[in-house]
Amino acid sequence: MKLKLLGSLFVLLAVAVFQLQAAEEAKAAPAEAAPSAVKAALMAVIEKVQAKAQAGQVTEAALADELKALDALLAAHKTEKTDDVAQVLVMKSVIYLELIGDTDKAAGFFKQLKAEFPESAQAKDVDEVLKMIEIQQAAARAQEALKVGAVFPDFAEKDLAGNPLSVGKFKGSVVLVDFWATWCGPCVEDMPQVIALYEKYHARGLEIIGVSLDKDEAALKAFIEKNKMTWPQFFDGKFWENKLAGQYGVTSIPFTVLINGDGKIVGTNLRGAKLDAALATLLGQ
């Protein structure tokens, strides 16, 4: 399950609201009335972008024609500070954010939106969107430290029982750091297999450190006891603001980091058969 980044929500709302408004206006308007020139042109571009996205054509080069069309639309209506024109800049921003994946350019266009269309309906959420972009960028930087072959950047915390907790505590063992939560459906679905793998490989040198993104400590402890999960857990009750989730750029769970006996990362986000195979390689069948 993913962190509900406001950027993604903003994208969906931007398109959905725009299309809904256009549909409602079409119903309410006289039969001879037509959408504004800006709306009609923007809808045409949106349809082309959606078609390319469905075909997996989401690079800046692949979307060059659509981006040029948006720029031309903005230039043609540069003196108009309306919501319709602001929506053109919104779509350019979200194309970079959600499709191309260039958060720096996306942030720049959102700032432009705020500066050039401060009274628009779209500008009111820009500050929150920019904050979430910053979170995305920080997460991406943190994930860079989790490359296969790199030494795991350790932590020093306390587990649920108040005991010292770190990967280094299990030096020489294979360690699986498992980010999860009891409210996460895929995590709960995977847990029986995680338990089975622990039982299979623990005697050969596997240790697990759980990092729970739960908010309710009692519910977490009840789940752990019911499922006989004997490995240590880090818990701070902060949900998506969990300290270790933030430290390692985790924005989607379940998420795992597999670390060998030398403290080096051998895999991330391994689950199911892939995790079993990796453990078999490290610890033997």
Describe the structure.
This protein is an alpha/beta fold. The chain has two domains: 139 residues, Serine Threonine Protein Phosphatase 5, Tetratricopeptide repeat; 127 residues, 3-Layer(aba) Sandwich (Glutaredoxin). The protein has ten helices and seven strands. Helix 2 packs parallel to helix 4. The two termini are 31 Å apart. One of its GO terms (cellular component) is cell envelope. It is found in: Cell envelope. Keywords: Cytochrome c-type biogenesis, Disulfide bond, Redox-active center, Signal. This is Thioredoxin.
Give the strand tally: 7
Task: Give the DSSP E fraction (strand runs of 2 or more residues).
Answer: 5-15%
- Number of domains in the coordinates? 2
| Residue share in helix | 40-55%
CATH domain class of the largest domain: Mainly Alpha
Structural class given helices, strands, pairing?
alpha/beta
The run of helices and strands is HHHHHHEEEHEHEHEEH
Offer a quick outline of the entry.
About 50% of the residues lie in helices and about 10% in strands.
Question: What key phrases describe this protein's structure?
Answer:
Glutaredoxin, two-stranded antiparallel ribbon, elongated, Serine Threonine Protein Phosphatase 5, Tetratricopeptide repeat, 7 strands, disordered N terminus, five-stranded mixed β-sheet
